[in-house]
Amino acid sequence: MTDQRHVLRPTYTRDGVRAVAPRLQIPDGEMEPTSAYQLVHDEVMLDGNSRLNLATFVATWMGDEADRLYAEVYDKNMVDKDEYPRTAAIEENCWRILGSLWNVPDVTDCIGTSTVGSSEACMLGGLALKRRWQLARRTAGMSADRPNLVMSSAVQVCWEKFCNYFEVEPRYVPITAEHPCLDGSNVEEHVDENTIGVVAIMGVTYTGMYEPVQEIAAALDALQERTGHDVPIHVDGASGAMIAPFIQQDVVWDFRLERVHSISTSGHKYGLVYPGVGWVVWRTLDALPEELIFRVSYLGGDMPTLALNFSRPGAQVLLQYYQFLRLGREGYTAIQQECQDVAKYLARGIADIGAFDLWNDGSDIPVFAWQLKPGHTENWSLYHLSDRLRMKGWLIPAYPMPDDLGDVTVQRIVVRNGVSRDLADDLLADIRVETEWLDGLSSPMPVEGLRPSFHH
């Protein structure tokens, strides 16, 4: 029988809600469910508004039908393919669709998988590069104990983790003002017989710029002619692999380049799905060493698995298929184009303020960065502007560039689905107001406690 005392008493006079919620130990007794809900609900009110978080690439909006589907399938375990065979089939549909979108030579001869995110997808791409290199070296009777991976110094931290966790020497090609991304111009200085591969980024997280995969491949082709070193490319397309196929089809970056062995992307970025899904596809079956695929008996079935995680959500995989069906090529093109148009609109507006120099204008992925004009002011920095905007609800990160450009501080905006032209105009107005306020200072702002507001 329902305890009418809980039903009738106002929420904030109930016993559970009148106490401070435990932080370090599980409570001894139970709590009425609506009270537990209210406590957690109120705690997360202190988080920022995700729609105003222009630091994150991660999708923050999908729509009512997707929300309803999510609620219906949140209990599905992606690894349990015997129990959820249709979810498993839909997963395969998705990575084959991506393979086709990325111009794989034969969609029936490729292989892929879903992952928890693009970081796990990168790890799998890196592992395949390492294992193929090891197998080739051992077959030739050579040492296979000193692998290295060549990449830009502006890579996302998941690649640093990969090299650390899986004992691969990272070889970073420094970005400079003249070469703001890995462009193939000096890649040969870092490649040798122990190089397992080169990482090319379609959408550098610091600035949003594409690394020219075709030029990198051409440099590696020339290197192979001179040295015999056959070095494959993994394309980290966390963002760009879901942008370029729709609005930049003339950019050659994908499996049209024979040197590209694998591509990873994030379904929960410009794949337009809520957080929790990434993808990786290999151009052919033999690009992924068979020994990286485990076949296990699970709940009465024989199940191949090649992800690092075992149990993981199936809901986001279904949401990805929903988006493919719902939007199609036409819908994805419209959304990605609008995101780019809004990014360019914002970039023009920020450039017009006069205090800033753009690093780029959102012409690659809908992301751009800017820095203070040299000599503009000694009284404030972009960290101060970031703090002023945060007071109005906007999260616009400020951070230093990597390595050789470590003395350069930039701010960056990520335009995602849901950042409308109207919302962008509100943001521009706030940036103008706060820049004018900072420019009016008669003495320097304090610098204590200032720190980067985003980490790569």
From TrEMBL:
<dbReference type="Pfam" id="PF00282">
    <property type="entry name" value="Pyridoxal_deC"/>
</dbReference>
<dbReference type="InterPro" id="IPR002129">
    <property type="entry name" value="PyrdxlP-dep_de-COase"/>
</dbReference>
<dbReference type="GO" id="GO:0004058">
    <property type="term" value="F:aromatic-L-amino-acid decarboxylase activity"/>
</dbReference>
<protein>
    <recommendedName>
        <fullName>Glutamate decarboxylase</fullName>
        <ecNumber>4.1.1.15</ecNumber>
    </recommendedName>
</protein>
<dbReference type="InterPro" id="IPR015424">
    <property type="entry name" value="PyrdxlP-dep_Trfase"/>
</dbReference>
<dbReference type="GO" id="GO:0005829">
    <property type="term" value="C:cytosol"/>
</dbReference>
<dbReference type="GO" id="GO:0006538">
    <property type="term" value="P:L-glutamate catabolic process"/>
</dbReference>
<keyword id="KW-0210">Decarboxylase</keyword>
<feature type="modified residue" description="N6-(pyridoxal phosphate)lysine">
    <location>
        <position position="269"/>
    </location>
</feature>
<comment type="similarity">
    <text>Belongs to the group II decarboxylase family.</text>
</comment>
<dbReference type="GO" id="GO:0004351">
    <property type="term" value="F:glutamate decarboxylase activity"/>
</dbReference>
<dbReference type="InterPro" id="IPR010107">
    <property type="entry name" value="Glutamate_decarboxylase"/>
</dbReference>
<keyword id="KW-0663">Pyridoxal phosphate</keyword>
<dbReference type="InterPro" id="IPR015421">
    <property type="entry name" value="PyrdxlP-dep_Trfase_major"/>
</dbReference>
<keyword id="KW-0456">Lyase</keyword>
<dbReference type="GO" id="GO:0030170">
    <property type="term" value="F:pyridoxal phosphate binding"/>
</dbReference>
